[in-house]
Amino acid sequence: MATYIVLLGPPGAGKGTQAKILAQTTNLAHISSGDLFRENITNQTELGKLAKSYMDKGELVPDDITIAMVRERITRSDCKNGAIVDGFPRTPIQADAFEKILDGLGAAVTAVPYVTAAEAVLIERTGGRWSCRAQGHIYHKKFNPPKQEGICDIDGSELYQRDDDKEETVAKRIRVYLERTMPLVEYYRKRGKLIEINGVQPVEQVTKELLAALK
Ligand code: ADP
Ligand code: ADP
Fold first, then answer.
1. Nearest CA to 136 among 57, 211, 30?
2. Each residue of 95-108: pLDDT tens digit?
3. Per-domain boundaries in the chain
4. Backbone angles phi, psi at 3, to 5 degrees
5. Would you state the torsion angle of the CA atoms of residues 177, 178, 183, 186, taken in this order, to the nearest 10 degrees?
6. 3-117+193-214 maps to which CATH number?
7. 157: CA distance to ligand 1 center in Å?
8. How far is the CA of 19 from the centre of ligand 1 (A)?
9. Active site includes 76?
10. Which among 28, 51, 74, 100 is least surrounded, fewest beta carbons within 10 Å?
């Protein structure tokens, strides 16, 4: 059966960083709802324009739009063995919808690593985050600097600071996370899928613990 790993955790916990590494080491696709929205913004699609109006305020994009986008993504051929999903689901409605989508594919969520970090860490990490324009590769000015300032090591594209990584917007995103996404911790714990991972360790150590937990 296909494997679907959902990475849960607050903004800045390290989900995207770990999802990219795990996707490479496990041969699963990487689905990031945030990256999908940002691609739509870059391509100036209708979906992108709509999503941006919520993202700039640090709010969640409405469930129906987000669910439709992920439903389309997950049926692409690169997901046939499953996927590492980061940033989705973010509400109980999305989690229920995801269960139905996977059920339709004869699959289910395999495990939900919950990556934790204290608020001060989240603020420091998002405040120094640099993202690659072309493919969303993730850097940090202090914790994971690129070899050459402003340029992605992997694809040579420009690195930029996300509009929603400004401190006020991050504070809002953390509040939204606590209100709307935290209920998913209990949602997946009840289903026996939750695995807590301490995100305040070096990237390699977090990866090691994730891989051990997912075995
Ligand atoms: P999320 O997807 O959960 O928002 P990211 O993976 O984008 O988090 O990481 C947020 C920022 O923190 C990035 O700048 C990233 O380089 C950095 N980062 C990620 N994991 C770690 C870690 N274990 N230690 C230090 N910095 C990290
Ligand atoms: P982070 O990695 O820092 O947690 P993301 O890239 O996942 O941030 O998300 C950035 C923004 O994109 C969110 O603040 C929200 O506006 C929107 N977004 C991403 N995923 C979802 C989702 N599953 N539901 C609703 N909005 C989402």
1. 30
2. 999 999 999 999 99
3. 3-117+193-214
4. -105, 125
5. 110
6. 3.40.50.300
7. 19
8. 11
9. no
10. 100
